Amino acid sequence: MTGPASRSRREALGVGFVVMAAFGFATSAVLAPLVFRSGGNQFAILVLRSVIAVGAASLFLAARAEPIMLPRTERNGCFLIGLIAAIQSFAYFTSFQFIPVSLATLIVFLYPLLVALIRRATHQEALGPLQFAALGTAFFGLALALDITGAGLDWRGVILAFIDALGSAAIALLGARVLGRAGTMQLTVHASVVSGVVLFLGAEIAGFGLHLPGGVTGWLALGAAPFLYLVGILGFFKGIQTIGPTRTTMVSNIEPVVILILAAFLLGEELSGQQLLGAAFVIGAVITTQIARARAARGR
């Protein structure tokens, strides 16, 4: 029997998983420029992170004597998630050739709203005025924090970034279905195998290849980024499993804010007052929704 206190602890744990995921994804993203500056390319990072995800998750399952294989339906769902992840990763990195990174990131983070709307249509999830206001506030805050301007707008980059947004929404929604009968480690193994193979073949067929960095800094960044990304994957899917896809993606709005802060510390990038104000909007919107959710749960 689960009471309000137990539900509250479970929800707090779920939010904690998503915050952990945001820090993992953000740190991995901030380390990527260090790899690029040392001569590496995005495909080296993307393929390596898939290999490490498969290896680490497989070792974990073996140590716990848990099966790696899944029933056919769940296995196919994981494979589809891996394929989508490969496409969205390529689209996101390629969008940087046409539009600023900040604009691409803002477009990608339309996906929490897409998830909320789709879940409202398919699962009749409540989506009241407060949630709409919070999503809108978070998006406005991201626009300020990422210092968006109209310069450099190219429809090709916008489309590629929106493909990533659609992919992120699809992964969150598919993950919610697959995790009904699969564990996060099993999902990670199956999805990462497909993602890694697709990215490797794509890089070779397109002639990009895998370019490794030269220098200690580049290699350290290349080695650390995949493990941090793995933390992000596991935290994200564990969040979906614990608090559902809508709340998970809402809390995920803090990821770009974390990227800005880490970039200031690790890459020496400066933060303006506008960006700090935007970060405050995002964090405030996320905290407000969590408080409202907690109060609603206590009232049941």
Share of residues in strands: under 5%
Got a strand count? 0
Stretches where pLDDT is under 50 for at least 5 consecutive residues are: none
Structural class: mainly alpha
Radius of gyration (Å):
19 Å
Largest sheet, in brief, is: none
Element-by-element helix/strand order: HHHHHHHHHHHH
Compute the number of helices. Answer: 12
Terminal CA distance reads 15 Å
Averaged pLDDT: 86
Shape: globular
Helix percent band = over 70%
General description of the model:
The chain has 300 residues and is an all-alpha fold. Helix content is 80%, strand content 0%. The protein has helices at residues 4-37, 42-63, 72-95, 101-108, 111-123, 129-145, 155-178, 184-206, 216-243, 245-251, 254-266, 273-299. α1 runs antiparallel to α9 (216-243) and α5 crosses α7 (155-178). The longest helix is centred in the first third of the chain and has 34 residues, at 4-37. The chain starts with a helix and ends with a helix.
